[in-house]
Amino acid sequence: MAKWTAKHEAPEPLEGPVVATVTGGTILWFALFLVQLPFYGWFADRDRLWWVWTCAAGGFLGLIGIWYVRGREAALKRHAEAAALAARAERAERAGQAGSAGSEQGPGQDSGPQA
Q1: ∠ CA(48), CA(62), CA(45), 5° rounding?
Q2: Do residues 26 and 73 lie in contact, with contact meaning Cβ atoms separated by under 8 Å?
Q3: How confident is the model at residue 111 (pLDDT cuts 50, 70, 90)?
Q4: Which residue of 6, 29, 72, 100 lies most exposed, with the fewest beta carbons within 10 A?
């Protein structure tokens, strides 16, 4: 049996409002937990308490997710700023080398007509 290989490159991952999405999901999990609390006895009678605790776990794991995606977003921003700064420095260095190469004159070279 031959090993399967992709016929095309994988697309770039989609970037969107990740922090807002995770925050919204976390709020939703906590809201569902709070809505179910008054019916705790009903869930317990029907052996469905895992519904309540699943919502609580989703909310707490969402807090970890918010911490993670905020850190990721900050790291991506720092990386982009560092790359832009390095690109600017490289362009300035190339421009400085090009400008100084034309203006440097060796000993005994005439700088042009003098009055």
Answers
A1: 10
A2: no
A3: low
A4: 6
